[in-house]
Specification:
The chain is 41% helix and 20% strand. The protein is an alpha+beta fold. Helix 6 (170-205) packs across helix 7 (207-225). The chain is globular, with a radius of gyration of 23 Å. One of its GO terms (molecular function) is diacylglycerol O-acyltransferase activity.
């Protein structure tokens, strides 16, 4: 595991910090369950991570390793079910919630998929969940592209060979961990030498600039790691292990036009809708809330990245003002805060910082991250999806709704683009926002007003 993945794995000592990614995929039709099972079998062979479990190194400080599960059983990971209620979208979301809330079996690979057929209008659905240590949102889209096709009559892909199984004994695990730590130490020394030479050169050439740069970096590290154990909102103080799902959708072209009219982007409109909705939600409760704390993952995945999946993001937290004199001012404020978050000097230090933090006792690490993450009022994420229609075993995909993990926040609001739709998955902690239907309606109204500016 990478150090950041190992951190997400370790902090689940506190179940409130679980990092489960859930996707609800709506299908226009009912594919054959056998064909779907074969598709998931093929993907689990093409992407070995889907057949790997996590194994710790009890006699080493090396992070846990991924190891092919010798007892992999597709019947556990892929299941079929009938919908509850009448088979509406609301019934489907209610069905997905307990699936998402349940923790993973840590003795098995960290993913599950449930095929739901018999819904309204001849539709069906796939409920899929992955542990965040397998992939981030962008990597999840890459994983899905291994499962989906871009044409209804796409040629059948080869099943492929299953990844080889080798379960290390204790001696092999110790040696492997030692080699891993040695390589990591050598790499760290090499980077330190290079960075040290650069630092000396900077001090000689520009001592004042070097001092200011070092000071800015230290302040940035402090901002990233500072504990904020309580949300800013007086309404969203409580936390629980429960979730509630809801969805919204917006036309992509209209959202893009609204952003352009205000000098912003789709992401600016997305975040502005959250801020405007939160302001109206608090106002409806007679609360004059001035600020909220928002979290947002920053994608650092390079265009040249050749592997599917994996986590290539850094976390950011920032405070946003709820009250603004105009919509234009709101967009400008959002843009300023997100640019600052992306340009944090400490973003480049997340990997080495994770290495250091991982060496602390798990109890301390969990407490530190709990104080950081439970202080978020909202976690927001914008994931670019497929711009063209997709199919699974020949059946059209009607919509894809993403639900990010709460991981201590009061709500997680995630946007995923698909063709000309921006689908928003809303994951609420009902202890934080007990009137979820009302909250969603305030968000819907906020986005309607923003889109009217297109």
């Amino acid at each position: 595991m990478s150090d950041s993945d190992a951190l997400m794995w370790a902090i689940e000592k506190d179940p409130m910090l679980r990092s489960t990614i859930t996707t609800v995929m709506l299908l226009d039709g009912e594919p054959d369950v056998g064909s779907l099972r074969l598709a998931f079998d093929r993907v689990s062979r093409a992407i070995p991570r889907l057949r790997q479990r996590v194994r710790s190194n009890p006699l080493s400080i090396a992070p846990p390793r991924w190891e092919v599960d010798p007892n992999f059983d597709l019947r556990y990971h892929f299941r079929a079910a009938r919908p509850t209620g009448s088979g509406s979208i609301r019934d489907l979301l209610d069905m997905a919630v307990p699936v998402a809330m349940q923790g993973f079996d840590r003795a098995r690979p960290l993913w599950e998929a449930t095929y739901v057929n018999g819904m309204d209008n001849g539709q069906s659905a796939l409920l899929m969940k992955f542990h965040h240590s397998i992939t981030d949102g962008v990597g999840g889209v890459e994983l899905m592209m291994e499962l989906l096709d871009m044409a209804p009559d796409a040629p059948e892909r080869d099943l492929g060979d299953a990844p080889p199984v080798h379960v290390m004994n204790q001696a092999e695990r110790f040696i492997d961990a030692f080699v891993h730590e040695s390589k990591r130490g050598s790499s760290s020394i090499s980077r330190a030498a290079t960075n040290g030479a650069d630092t000396v050169r900077s001090i000689i050439e520009d001592p004042i600039g070097a001092y200011n740069s070092a000071s800015e970096t230290l302040q940035s590290v402090s901002r990233i790691l500072s504990p904020e154990s309580h949300p800013l909102s007086v309404l969203t103080q409580n936390r629980s292990l429960s979730s509630s799902f809801d969805v919204l959708s917006m036309p992509l072209d209209q959202t893009k036009a609204a952003g352009r009219s205000l000098g912003g982007s789709i992401n600016d409109i997305f975040l502005a809708g959250i801020v405007l909705g939160m302001d109206r939600y608090h106002g409806s409760h007679g609360v004059n809330q001035q600020r909220i704390r928002m979290g947002m993952p920053i994608n650092v995945r390079g265009a040249a990245s050749e592997h599917s999946g994996g986590n290539e993001w850094v976390p950011s937290r920032f405070v946003v003002n709820l009250r603004h004199s105009s919509t234009g001012d709101l967009i400008e404020h959002i843009r300023s805060r997100t640019i600052d978050a992306r340009n944090e000097p400490a973003n480049s230090l997340v990997a080495p910082l994770s290495n250091v933090i991982n060496r602390l006792p798990t109890t301390i690490v969990t407490q530190v991250f709990g104080m950081m993450m439970k202080g978020l009022d909202v976690q927001a994420s914008n994931v670019p999806g497929a711009p063209v229609p997709l199919y699974i075993t020949g059946t059209p995909i009607a919509a894809i709704y993403p639900f990010g993990p709460l991981a201590g926040a009061g709500t997680n609001i995630t946007l995923l683009s698909y063709v000309n739709a921006l689908n928003i998955g809303i994951n609420l902690d009902p202890a934080s926002i007990p009137d979820g239907d009302h909250f969603v309606e305030t968000l819907r109204g906020a986005y309607d007003d923003l889109l009217a500016l297109a």
